[in-house]
Amino acid sequence: MFNKILIANRGEIACRVIKTARKMGISTVAIYSDADKQALHVKMADEAVHIGPPPANQSYIVIDKVMEAIRSSGAQAVHPGYGFLSENAKFAEALEAEGVAFVGPPVGAIESMGDKITSKKIAQEAKVSTVPGYMGLIEDAEEAVKISNEIGYPVMIKASAGGGGKGMRIAWNDDEAREGFQSSKNEAASSFGDDRIFIEKFVTQPRHIEIQVLCDTHGNGIYLGERECSIQRRNQKVVEEAPSPFLDPETRKAMGEQAVALAKAVGYASAGTVEFIVDGDKNFYFLEMNTRLQVEHPVTELITGVDLVEQMIRVANGEPLSITQDDVTLTGWAIENRLYAEDPYRNFLPSIGRLVRYRPPQEVASGPLLINDKWQGDAPEGEAAVRNDTGVYEGGEISMYYDPMIAKLCTWAPTREAAIEAMRVALDSFEVEGIGHNLPFLSAVMDHPKFVSGDMTTAFIAEEYPDGFEGVTLPDQDLRRIAASCAAMHRVAEIRRTRVSGRMDNHERKIGKRWNVALQGQEFAVKVKADREGSTVKFEDGSKLRVTSDWTPGDQLAVLEVDGSPLVLKVGKVSGGFRVRNRGADMKVHVRTPRQAELARLMPEKLPPDTSKMLLCPMPGLIVKVDVEPGQEVQEGQALCTIEAMKMENILRAEKKGVVAKINAGPGDSLAVDDVIIEFE
Questions:
Q1: Does the annotation mark 288 as catalytic?
Q2: What's the pLDDT tens digit per position in 184-204?
Q3: C-alpha distances in Å from residue 359, one per residue of 336, 399, 404, 421, 433
Q4: In the beta sheet, which residues pair with residue 433?
Q5: Is the peptide bond between 360 and the residue preceding it cis, with omega within 30 degrees of 0?
Q6: What local confidence, expressed as pLDDT, does residue 12 receive?
Q7: What element of type H or E holds 127?
Q8: Catalytic one of 111, 187, 200, 288
Q9: Is the CA virtual torsion 246, 250, 252, 258 positive or negative?
Q10: What does 21-32 look like in DSSP terms, one character per residue?
Q11: Of 58, 43, 96, 51, nearest to 73 (Cα)?
Q12: Helix (H, G, I), strand (E, B) or coil at 675
């Protein structure tokens, strides 16, 4: 076995590999850029080597710099993680020439599966089900129209070397085929330096389901079930689960066997993923093969008990697989939510900055879901697990140079329903402050009827949130539970305030029993009767809720029981009440005396400031260029300036016709959210 492995990556996947290497007794070497000097993976590794400036194209993906780090550290093997150099055949060749083991597949497999046209031809030869389409070179738009008619609309026009949604168009008729062909060709040339295009049938009601394969260098290959990855935003996966709620055992077996056949056809050795598109009738078609460890691999590990990173290392060491297909069993259900540094209330724009507070739920390898050492969730005690793969820590920085993923939160339980409930509670208890993040959106998805039913397609987010995410309005039953809890918590805070020292004699403060709780546009008049164990909150209609908790003023996480059912609230202080976050809702909860509530209703509504004549910075970022100047007249849709954040350039455009009055920032300036860039007359 290797004595030392270098991880050619950063963030959570580097930390993930280090954990398994440590378990196996293998020393680890981290690499880091200037931006990652204090990163978690650097702190966790046994050694760390600096490789350059923050931009990845000057550090993490520069093969010569990584090779120099390997030589200086004496590492015998390299795990590439995912992204960066993980599917780079030249990197694998450089390692081979150096006599260093690549913890991944052979160079030939990377090259064969890295090209969409080549990979599809190999899949067809291996008798893998493929989408009807045309794999040859397409000369011009008219040939594209002819081919599209032969296949039958709708069709998908794709760049052969594409990825991340670039060079991809859907055409429903001849005109769209002509236009889509040229646009895809242009995008492919500029993004990948390769303008080859192919056309295939567009699958309706598509689900994205992938098969995890594991092969060794001795000709053995197995599949470890499937992962459902249909909940995506702009072709980026957001929620994954294993197994799929859609597949039956027969379809799973057929997909798995075809995935292994494809892997063997290219001499695959290591962990890999064969991705399929599956239609509403369970017809499945080969999409592509990822010749690396997938981001969502933890859900497979949770239902199979197989450590995929360990298996990759053992295969790279020349060992045969220790398990056969008959040994693979799928137990229970696992769900993964990707926590991104993206602000869902601002159309998921990147958010960077310091993690002022970062408190994930307690990880539980097996056993109950614990929050503040108390059992939560509906699954029987001992029947849920929580895992959080992360590469950040409280006080650390989310950099503008890399992927915005903060963590991968996973839960496991015996059933899908219990795994979803465990995830809901885990999301409610995950505390992240200082940056924008998608926790509220993830909570909303976990409660969405379509997700709960398992009846979703890859169009789920586009169809269910066409105008973006604007928060959640909770049902009346949930609002009552929160109102009762906040009334009980407010009473505890009021008691604390009566005990302040140094008060004047004869000025004792009385705590009333009647309160008015206002939240999400509703008001509840309640009466709170407290005892040593908790509070009974009575509503005007005579209904009662029993609230128990050990919450004390100042705690930012409240773990309560309301009529015996768990309730986890993230709590902040606002004037006259609390800021409460729960199940995707972010609300101000005002707890007032009846008289205060009466007066509050008479207060005029405070209107937000008028920013209609300003261009505000929608995200923290760097100004790349400004396209206008003072006195210039601009038209609706005209580009005003470009902001760079999280490796992406965002062009800000005029929302209406106007004249530029003042420009407050220029190229190279670093801006915060809502900084005024341009003012208009």
A1: yes
A2: 888 778 767 788 888 988 888
A3: 18, 19, 18, 20, 9
A4: 357
A5: no
A6: 96
A7: none
A8: 288
A9: negative
A10: HHHTT-EEEEEE
A11: 51
A12: coil
